[in-house]
Design goal:
Layout lengths: L1 H17 L20 H4 L3 H9 L2 H9 L1 H7 L5 E2 L10 H7 L8 H23 L8 H26 L12 H8 L6 H19 L14 H14 L3 H13 L23 E5 L38 E2 L1 H6 L5 H6 E5 L9 E5 L16 E5 H16 L4 H13 L19 H15 L6 H8 L2 H15 L21 H7 L9
Antiparallel strand pairs: 1-3, 2-6, 4-5
Helix pairs in contact: 1-3, 3-8, 4-7, 5-7, 7-8, 8-10, 8-11, 10-11, 11-12, 12-15, 15-16, 15-17, 16-17
Length: 512
């Protein structure tokens, strides 16, 4: 881990070259090299390639810290916000939650631009690595595999967020090249999946190691590539192709559930056997985690963090009452995920404020917290397998119950089974089992940026979100000032207005 983060800091020196296709607010492609390095004098040694590969990771971390929780979790029925009447600086974020965005809202570009930056950085490595001498061919292929895994990941996020996107797999060396690429149309999502994502992940699975030395935790592994490809297949409801990938992770014996759900998310999760792939943070490397501070009540000051002040524009990504009500009594995942803040303990009338406590491990200093964000974990593998078995076999597969109940045992909850005298736990049909899996998935993975894409896959997104909107309007009187709230629930994000205006890209349905 230390070696990995140190090398990441070194990579920032070289990333000026790797970002030759870098992004800004108005343009996601620029072609002129910056800094003292160029394509001709940088990608020449194994050390330089490793630095360039390390430089592809931070953009993914940034996406999970910001735009992804805003669009995949916050936009869903899992979370909401509490406005601070004395600080209206985060109205743009609040508008995400109740669906009054326009195509010029910043959140769209906050996914589009970083993803293309990550893709361009990966393209440099993929296109220039071949003639570079390495001590071993195995390590050369592993470095290329990391770059391909990350390029596939950025394209996965793009296609999940926008559907059809622009395909770029080469590097740009001239103004003419840049203009040619910018003039390309958006290609069908299926083309991106079949011609870029799947080939990249096939290469990654064949060339990534099963594990890295402990100092290199945080790098992509074979299981991470298998998990990402399974996610891609799930997005297309192609469950049959996903099952062997997920089975392979299980039979490898490399991963297992941590008996203590809470500790999976804490500072001790560096080598947690449940985590397959994570975004790395380290206070000692001046890269501490702090994304979760905006999830805390803005009224809390230092009372929750026991250190740093919570921003007056916080209170975002807070659990909805519907999510809270979905947990069963005694569910240990509730204790680990949802906390309550008492603004005035001396007042009998003061209401407790629920917030996401999943990532809060005080004290939190100005340097942030020393924990990682789990992007893929073993619990998700079990839930995906249970879902895939039901959707491919129908009926009541024994293995689906086994995977589902393994998580129930850890949560200290009674088991699902046919004929259970508790009607809430009785599974007598395929639809009962399907609903149970969806419920467990929501609770197990709450606040981990899965919910919106899950609802899309279930085919219930519009129904669930419309019902959520009605509930929120009944609970949150400040929405009276926004009669348009929840009236235009669009599945895909808008192609950023600047991109459409400058390059003529077709806009997604429902956006102007």
């Amino acid at each position: 881990m230390t070696k990995y983060l140190t090398t990441l800091k070194l990579a920032l020196v070289f990333i000026l070259v790797a970002s030759t296709l870098g992004c800004n607010e108005d343009d996601f492609l620029t072609y002129s090299p910056r800094g003292s390095y160029s394509v001709q004098n940088f990608y020449q040694t194994e050390t330089q390639i490793e630095a360039a590969v390390n430089g592809i990771y931070p953009t993914l971390r940034g996406l999970y810290n910001g735009a992804l929780w805003q669009t995949v979790e916050f936009r869903s029925d899992n979370t909401t916000f509490i406005p601070n009447p004395n600080d209206r600086g985060s109205v743009g974020t609040e508008e995400i939650d109740y669906f009054v965005l326009t195509s010029s809202s910043g959140v769209h570009n906050n996914i589009w631009a970083p993803c293309y930056k990550g893709i361009s950085n990966a393209n440099y490595v993929i296109n220039l690595i071949e003639p570079v001498p390495f001590q071993t061919e195995e390590n050369k292929r592993a470095k290329e595999a990391e770059a391909r895994f990350l390029r596939a990941f950025y394209y996965y996020i793009l296609t999940q967020s926008f559907g059809d996107v622009v395909k770029i797999t080469e590097i740009i060396e001239s103004e003419d090249d840049a203009g040619e690429i910018l003039a390309r149309r958006r290609v069908p999502r299926e083309e991106i999946v079949n011609e870029v994502i799947i080939p990249d992940l096939d290469f990654a699975m064949s060339n990534l190691p099963a594990s890295w030395p402990s100092l290199d935790q945080g790098r992509a592994t074979k299981a991470a590539a298998q998990m990402l490809l399974a996610k891609v297949y799930f997005a297309d409801l192609n469950y049959g192709e996903a099952i062997p990938l997920l089975d392979s992770i299980v039979v490898s014996g490399q991963y297992m559930l941590n008996p203590d759900y809470r500790s999976v998310f804490g500072p001790g999760n560096r080598l947690d056997p449940e985590i397959i792939f994570s975004n790395q943070f380290s206070v000692t490397a001046n890269q501490g985690a702090g994304w979760f501070l905006s999830f805390l009540p803005y009224q809390s000051g230092t009372n929750i963090t026991e250190g740093i002040f919570v921003s007056t524009s916080a209170s975002k990504n807070m659990p909805t009452q519907d999510l809270i009500n979905t947990y069963e009594a005694g569910d240990k995942r509730f204790e680990a995920s949802v906390a309550y803040y008492d603004e005035d303990p001396n007042s009998a009338e003061n209401e407790l404020i629920p917030y996401c406590g999943k990532y809060v491990f005080p004290p939190v200093t100005n340097g942030g917290s020393d924990l990682n964000f789990p992007v893929f974990r073993y619990a998700d593998v079990l839930l995906m397998l249970a879902e895939a078995l039901v959707e491919t076999q129908g009926g009541l597969p024994d293995k689906a119950f086994e995977y589902l109940n393994t998580l129930r045992v850890r949560a200290d909850l009674p088991l699902y089974f046919p004929g259970n005298p508790n009607p809430d736990l009785d599974i007598s049909s395929t639809e009962d089992l399907r609903q149970a899996i969806q419920k467990e998935r929501r609770l197990e993975l709450a606040f981990e940026n899965h919910r919106w894409w899950d609802l899309r896959r279930y085919g219930t997104l519009q129904e669930v979100m419309s019902s959520h909107g009605e509930e929120q309007k009944a609970l949150q009187d400040y929405l009276d000032d926004f009669p348009e709230a929840y009236t235009n629930i669009r599945d895909l994000l808008a192609i950023p207005f600047g991109q459409v205006n400058q390059y003529g890209y077709r806009q997604n349905e429902g956006w102007e």
